[in-house]
C-alpha cells in the first residue's frame, strides 16, 4: 500500500483519541517506562498534518486519558544497541517500579556490519526477562521492516530487510517465551509507504510514529479484551 495521507485524522492506520481511550478504558497500569533506541525516542522528521509527538508519548497520553495519575519515564537513547539498552537503561527501569514497560531495541544491531541475531536475541532476553520477573507487563516492539537509505544498493537494502524480518521473528519468540505482548511493525500494511520515513530513509517520521502508537494501543486493547482491530503480530 502506497497511499499518501495529509492529515492523521483521516489516516486509517492512526487512531483517534476517543477510540484510544475506549480501547484502554480497563487499563490497570499506573507506571509506564520505555526502554530502547532511536525508534523509542523520536520524534522523527515532521510530517504535515501529523502531530510531532513520538509514539511512546502518544501511548502515555492515551493511558493518561483513563489513568490521569500515570507516571511515565522514557529512558530510550539514540544509537543504542541492545547491549547498551540493557547496560544503561534496565536498572533504571527496574528502580522506577513500573507496571508497564515498552521495549524497542535491536534496530541498531540490525544496521551493524557485524549483526549477530543470536547475540541480539540474548541481550533482548536479558532485558525482557528481568522486567517480567519483577511483575512488569512488557510490550515488545519490532520496527518497521523496509527502512534503509535509498542511496544504498538493492542488495544492501535486501540484507537489511531480511535482518529486520529476522528481528521481528526473534522478538515474537521472546514475547511468547516470557509472556510479553508483541507488536511487529514489519507486518504492518503501512510498512511499504515511503512517507512513514524521514529524510534519511531509515528513521520513521511523525506519521510513522503516529502509526506505531496506534498499533501499540490497538494491541494493548486486544490484550485487555476490548474489541478493536488488532495490530499485526
TrEMBL record:
SUPFAM superfamilies: SGNH hydrolase. Signal peptide: none annotated. It comes from the Bacteria. Residues 34-209 form the SGNH hydrolase-type esterase domain. Coiled coil: none annotated. CDD domains: SGNH_hydrolase_like_1. InterPro entries: GDSL_Rv0518-like (IPR053140), SGNH_hydro (IPR013830), SGNH_hydro_sf (IPR036514). Pfam families: Lipase_GDSL_2. Gene3D superfamilies: SGNH hydrolase (3.40.50.1110). This is SGNH hydrolase-type esterase domain-containing protein. The lineage of its organism: Bacteria, Bacillati, Actinomycetota, Actinomycetes, Kitasatosporales.
